[in-house]
Design a protein that fits this description.
Radius of gyration: 17 Å
Number of strands: 11
Largest sheet: 9 strands, mixed
Strand content: 15-25%
Shape: globular
Bound molecules: 3-hydroxy-5-(hydroxymethyl)-2-methylisonicotinaldehyde
Structural class: alpha/beta
Length: 279
Amino acid sequence: MKRILTIQDISCVGQCSLTVAQPILSCCQMEACVLPSAILSTHTGGFKGFTFRDLTSDMLPISAHWKKEGITFDGIYTGYLGSIEQIGIIEQIILKFKQKDTMIFIDPAMADDGKLYSLFDDAFVNRMKEYIRFADVIVPNSTEACFLLGREWKPNFTKEECIDMVKELSKFGASIVCLTGITYEENKIGVMAYEQKTNKITTYFGEKIPKMFHGTGDVFASSFFGCLMNQIPLAKSLEITVEFILTALRKTLPDESHWYGVHFEEALPQLILDIQKNK
Ligand code: PXL
């Protein structure tokens, strides 16, 4: 069984980051080890007065213990990070644990809907631009793509603009760039991946659910990473992941009180079956 490491925060309530990644990666049939970047009482996208404990100073001692125990990882996936200083430490951890075939998957989780998340600023964006050079795969949404490229964001981009963005982003070095949440097909929302090696663009679109849900980026990244780690081909990985999210969103939509996350739990059986069928 593959063992992977995911580094992101624990939002104790909020259905994002580790509380989403861990169960999804287990459903993708991997041993999912975690390195929490920070502990928050909730996520920062709509709750007021959340607590935040930065765990930067724990990271090197934790990883040093793993090294001493001879623990290795087949993949490392990072999401929402706690501070600029922490990024340097995570780079050291990646260098320490990266073996020939270790997939480094970076979700540059820092912005959505045209805006940076509340705890980030331009200095964090600049550091993220350096950090993504470590990645084999990056999965920005269109807002993050614009911050990384220094472009103006708008709610909709044309197909040509999306192609231009993924190709431009690939210059940071990742072999796969996957842009999420793109909307140039009428009444649809989807993803576009560019694979540098083959110069190939792959897209997958699904029905556009008429509401924005917090945490879909984390559900996407976790499932997509899980599919790729199972060596499922890129196009199929996108299909499985978008269909998983659509099922989750359909389950969430009727529950109007659930504003802060996605009921992905009820869609997990579908993901497990798709992984078993395709791996
Ligand atoms: O879903 C991304 C995310 C993860 N973690 C925290 C967040 C957010 C988005 O707002 O606030 C703490």
